[in-house]
Amino acid sequence: MAVSRALRRLLRIRILQEEQSRLALESALGELHRLEHALAATFERGRRGRSLVQSSIQTGQLMDRLAGFEETRSAGLHAAALGPRIDAMGVEVSERREDFLLKRVERRQAETLIQETEARDAIVDGRRGQQTLDDWYSSRLYRDGDKESADIEPAVSILHEDSHPSNAVSEPAAENDSSDRGKTLGEIHIEGIRAS
Predict the structure, then answer these.
(1) Is 40 or 150 the better-scoring residue by pLDDT?
(2) Domains of the chain and CATH, by start
(3) Over the Cα atoms of the chain, what is R_g?
(4) Which helix (H) or strand (E) holds 163?
């Protein structure tokens, strides 16, 4: 059974679905990395705010201390807002990764099905070709066998001509024929050569 157009179309669809799923996964991973970088920047902002508060204690700058406290508080609020978004994006990435792997498996199944069908077709074609060669060879042997039997039949019919009712052999030939009974073809041939 040849690979149908429907199977090839199915494979193309599976390839496109896998590609779309891969792009969706890459997009979700990109968003997750962006959120993680934003969280890391927020932690850095909070660290700078605490550092500013400590330096303002030594210098006595009240404005720096207030700015440090505000930076730390803002970083904490920002981190609290980013935490659930990162968790949700982590779940989405997991779902998209599972979807991508499922699409990849479906694509590979379609490829395997097509490859197995093509391999089966190749085996069938090979057997058909071998059968054709076998038929050709046996018919050639049969034809060659017919030619060989055609070459042998006249000599055999000469030996047994006197047994046929329509014998048109002359008397001396008939006498030679009767004396040749029981001899092999090779002996008759050698006697014919000696006589000439």
Answers:
(1) 40
(2) 5-144 (1.10.287), 160-195 (no CATH)
(3) 49
(4) none
